[in-house]
Amino acid sequence: xxxxxxxxxxxxxxxxxxxxxxxxxxxxxxxxxxxxxxxxxxxxxxxxxxxxxxxxxxxxxxxxxxxxxxxxxxxxxxxxxxxxxxxxxxxxxxxxxxxxxxxxxxxxxxxxxxxxxxxxxxxxxxxxxxxxxxxxxxxxxxxxxxxxxxxxxxx
Length: 155
What we know:
Layout: H1 12-15, H2 21-41, H3 44-47, H4 49-70, H5 74-79, H6 83-107, H7 112-115, H8 123-147, H9 149-152
């Protein structure tokens, strides 16, 4: 069976083989780990508030690295039409809601800020904002995953 451009890996031309499951796992392993980390960070009832805050910081850092790694594609996607433009808009919404959720989460922190000797007033402003931005982030991440599902599943 011929190897098409969609499932070609380096060296596959000579061997004529399809990509192995290991290559699939390596390429998608970071995305899967990021999804598990973000999912655990979004469940404070399961992890407890201190773990929620520290996992939230780790997930924020990982998501920012992921956004930065793929940011080069946004201008080209925004110029194209349809689903690609929608994907670029959703990616921007993910980034904005992530930033808002991270900042508001730090401002209501009961573990992270005191650990570094800081305190933030304005709980009654930051807590509803954190709750709203977390829900917006979850919805945007689900739409993002849906839009990129074809690229994530095995071929």
